[in-house]
Amino acid sequence: MNRRLAAGMLAGSLAAAALVFFLLGHVRAGAQQEVALGELSQNSSLWVIPQQNYSALRHSALTEITTDNVKSLKIAWQMSTGATRGHEGQPLVIGDTLYYESAYPNHVYAVDLSDYHIRWEFTPKQDSFAVSVACCDLVNRGVAYGDGMIIANALDGTVYALSASSGSVVWRFKQADPELGQTVTSAPFVIQERNRVIVGVSGGEYGVRGYVTGLDLHTGRRVWRAYSMGPDSDTLTGGPAFHGPHNAGVSTWRGDQWKVGGGTTWGWYAYDPSLDLLYYGTGNPGTWNPSVRPGDNKWSMTIFARKPETGQAVWAFQMTPHDQWDYDGVNEMILADIKIHGQQVPALVHFDRNGFAFELNRQTGKPVLIEKYDPSVNWASGFNLATGRPIEDPRYNTHEGHNTTGICPASIGSKDQQPASFDPQTGYFIVPTNHWCEDYQPFAVKYKAGFPYVGAIVKMYRGPGDYGGALIAWDPDSGRIVWSDHEHFPAWSGVLTTDGGVAFYGTMDGWFKAVSTKDGSLLFKQKMPSGMIANPIAFQHGGHEYIAMLDGVGGWAGIGLAAGLTNPTAGLGAVGAASDLGKYTTLGGDLTIFSL
Amino acid sequence: MKSSDLMWRALCVGTALAIIGLPGFVRAQAHGALRVCADPNYMPYSDRSGAGFENKIAKLVGRALGRPVQYYWTSSRGISEYGEFLHQTIEAGKCDLLVDVPYGMVQVDSTSPYYVSSYVFVFKKSAGYDLTSLDSPVLRHVKLGYETETPVEDGLKLRTLTIGAKPFETADDPDASPDRMLDAIETGEINVGLTWDPAVGYYLKSHPDLVAVAIPNSRSQGSPEQYSFPMAMATRSSDKALNAQVSGVISTHRAQIDAVLREYNIRFFTPGTDE
To answer: What is the C-alpha to C-alpha distance for residues A350 and A331, in angstroms, rounded to an integer?
Structure first.
C-alpha cells in the first residue's frame, strides 16, 4: 500500500474497522511508508501520541459519554501494572491494541482490546544504578508510537524501539548515563513526518547539563543533540535562523558554571507541522543556591522552538531568568489557535511552575499574554510584555543565609508536569494545579573536612484558603480563571476533555472524577486502588467510548511530601513520613478502563 | 615608583626566597612551586607521605603546569572547623590551591568540577536491605550511623530517624578515620551507615562483604534534599589566572584524573562530558 493511497483513504474519513485492518496490514508488512502520525492522531477512536496529538490538546471528539450519562460510568476491565512506583503516563490505543508502560521497572505491555489478553510484554534489563540516582521517585510518562514501533524510555536512559506487533527490539539508543546522575522519565516524542524521535533527560541536580536528542526514527541513530546551555555550537542557537542573543548559554553564567548548568528536559513536547517547529521547556539551573550563580543562567527555564530535523533553534523564551525558587520550565506546551484579548493568535499556551500562564505567538516566540493562574502567586507581580521579563517583588527574592517566608507558589509550582487539556467547545484550558506556598532559605554550599554540605531549609504548606490544589478552567482570551474545584492535595494528574462536555482527572487521594467543562460541577467519582498522578485518555472500540486511566501514586508530590501538609508549622523533624496521604491511599499500579 | 611595581618587586623577592628554600627544586620554573594546603593526617584525602588522592591529584596538576608541588600542612579538622582551616591557609596566602572542595562553595573560587559523588548507604551485602532512598521503610527497623553536620543528618532528622542512631564525628577529630563507620557495621554496632562515598570508598576495597548504595537527591519531604555534589579544586579569589589554568588541566587530563579517582574507589565520574 503506497503513501498516496493511504492518504487518500484517510482523507475519505474511512471507518475505524478499515483503519484497523490497514494498520495491522502495515505492521505485518513491516514499514516502508505509513500513514502520517499527525493524520492518524485525528482519528478519535485511537490515541497514538502520548499527548494525544502534536498540539498536545488532550481533547477527544468522542461524544458517547456525556454530562448526562457519565454518572452511569462503570469499570469495564482492570489490570495490575506489576509496578508500584509513580505512574505519570497514559496508554496508547493503536488499532485493536492498547500499549502502556509502567513505572520502574518499566514493564511495557501490548493488550488485545477484544479479549484483554496480553499480546506481548517487555521489561528492559536496566542498570540498577539508575534507581539510586533518580530524583523524586521512579516515575515514567509513557510510550510513543511511530513507523510500526512502540518507543519506550527506560529509567536507566536506554531508548527501546519495539516492534508493535511482536515486542521484539528493533533498535536501542543510550540517551543517558546513570553513572553521571542522568536518567530518563519522560515519554519519547515521535515526529514521524520528519523521521525523528525526540528524547529528553532528567537529573539536573547531579552536575548534568541538560540536553535534547533527535534520533532517526528508523534506525535509532543520533542525528543531533542540543544542550540547554553552552556556546552556540552546543545549544544550536547559531546562525541567522535563531532570533535571540548568541552564546547567551555561556555569557549569562559566571565562569564555567554553565558546564554543570542543569536545564534538564523531562517534560512534555509539542510540534507544529505547518511551522515545522518542535517545542519544549528546560528545567532549573544548577546549582541550587542562586547566590553562587549570578546572571540570567540561560537557557535554563526556557521555552525552545527548534527545527526537528536538525535541532536548530529558531526562538527561545526564558520565563524565569536567574531562578531562585526551583520553578522548572518543563511543563507541557499546548498549541492552539485562539483569541487573546479578542485577537486571533497562533498560540503556544504553557502553564509554568512559576504560577504564570504564558500565551506566546508560537511562530515568533513573542508573548501576547502572561497572567497568574493562581491569584496567590507573589514572587512577581506580573510580566513586562515588551521585555518578556518578570516584575519581581524583592520581598520574595531568596538569598543565601536568609529565610524568605510566604513565597507562593512553593517549589513544586502552581502546577508541575501534570498536563492540562484544551477544550475547543468551551474555549477553556482545563488545568490541574497545586496550591502551596513555602518558606525558603537557599543552600549554602559548605565543606566540613571531607564532607560537602548544603544547608536546605524549605517548608511547604497549603496556600491561602487552606486547600492543596485545584482543577481550574482558564479563559485564554481574558487571562482569567472561570471556575475552580478545590482539592485537599495538589491535583497531580493530567486532564482529558471530551466533546461530551466532560473533563476527567484523578486525585492523589484516589478519586477518579468527571466534571462539567462548563462549570466544573462534579458528575461522577470512583475510588481507585491507589492515588493518581497519571493522565486519562479516551478511545473507541467496538463502537463504544472508553476512558482509560493509570493509578499508582508517587512522584515528587508522593507519599512523603504530603506529610508537610497536615501540620505546616511542624517543620523539620516533627512529621512522620506518610501520615496524611497514607490515610487515603497506598502505593499501587493499575490500569482501569471505564465505559457506560 | 607605583605601588603595583613595589608589590611586584616584593613578590619577586618572596619567590626567590621560596626557591632557595626548596631543596628539591632543580629546574628553573617561571612560576615557582604550586603551593597546596592539605591535611597531614586525613586519609583517604591526604597525608604527609603523599598517600591520599588529593596528593595524587595535586601532583598531576603540578606536573601539567610544570610546577613542583609544595605543601603547607595543617589539620582541617577540630572544633574550629573547616572555616578556620580556610582562614589560616588559603585566605592567609599560605597556599595557592585546595584540591577537594564542593563546586560553588562561596568562601573560595572553585574551578570546574572534576568529579561528582554522593552520600551513600553502607551495609552488609548479606543483609540484602532494599535501600533506595531515605524513605525506604527498612531504615525504621535497623540501627543507623551517620556523619554529623552533613546533609544526611538533616535528611534523617526530617524523618525522625536520628533518635537512637549513632553519630560519627570524623570531621571534628583530627585522629579519627572515616573507616570507623565500616568497623561499626562489621561488628553489628550499626546495620546501616550513612556517609560520603569518597570518604569510605578507599576502605571499602578491604571490606568486600560491604556494599555502598547512593542516596538519591530527593524532594519526598517537600524540601529539595541534595546528597550528590560536584567537587572541584579551589584557588584564592584574587588568582583568576591559576583558576583558569587548573580548570584547563581538568579538561585536558580527564583520563589521568579519572584513573586516580578509580584507584581510590571514588565513584560517579565526570560531570558535563559529552558521552
So the answer is: 7
